[in-house]
């Protein structure tokens, strides 16, 4: 059973999606801790209601980002996770902490990477006039939103969309995208090799795509 630690700064909707999938038996995993830089984060309340360890550390109590991250990841290491999921965590992570956990940390980002890195992705997409937007799950590296992409889900940008309507449409696809990606990780099918993301030990030359059935479409391979 995959042991998951979740990093979140906000409401925790992706955390809730993981919890629901675990409770329904669709994901062979256990969430062993939820960690946040904001004491008011909804994700911490969700964890507390489910009797999951919930930890809040304020960056203001540390002199540097490196010192804060060292303290944070020390607490994360205490719960011995196999996988760390950044689900709406809004702080940059120190290179040292990221490199020490290569291949064991993923992030869900609300754009079709490499497009629209950073914040305000829905505004960026609308300003750029793209026809398709979406979300990506990628391995975390020191580069902001620049790690190898595992899987993506697209949504159409509709006439009359604003940031709120587009964000809601993307969020509806984020949840199954994250759950199905974590499912493959829990099954040991997705790994990060020296040359990129691997599915069943074969390098993926493009991210997996989430189908209309909210399941990832796996490449067909001859036996």
From TrEMBL:
CDD domains: FMT_core_GART (cd08645). It catalyses: N(1)-(5-phospho-beta-D-ribosyl)glycinamide + (6R)-10-formyltetrahydrofolate = N(2)-formyl-N(1)-(5-phospho-beta-D-ribosyl)glycinamide + (6S)-5,6,7,8-tetrahydrofolate + H(+). GO terms for molecular function: phosphoribosylglycinamide formyltransferase activity. N(1)-(5-phospho-beta-D-ribosyl)glycinamide binds at residues 12-14. Pathway: Purine metabolism; IMP biosynthesis via de novo pathway; N(2)-formyl-N(1)-(5-phospho-D-ribosyl)glycinamide from N(1)-(5-phospho-D-ribosyl)glycinamide (10-formyl THF route): step 1/1. SUPFAM superfamilies: Formyltransferase. Its EC number is 2.1.2.2. Keywords: Purine biosynthesis, Transferase. Residues 3-181 form the Formyl transferase N-terminal domain. The record marks 145 as: Raises pKa of active site His. The active site is at 109 (proton donor). (6R)-10-formyltetrahydrofolate binds at residues 65, 90-93, 107. NCBIfam families: PurN. PANTHER family: PHOSPHORIBOSYLGLYCINAMIDE FORMYLTRANSFERASE (PTHR43369). Catalyzes the transfer of a formyl group from 10-formyltetrahydrofolate to 5-phospho-ribosyl-glycinamide (GAR), producing 5-phospho-ribosyl-N-formylglycinamide (FGAR) and tetrahydrofolate. HAMAP family: PurN. Belongs to the GART family. This is Phosphoribosylglycinamide formyltransferase. It comes from Lysobacter niastensis.
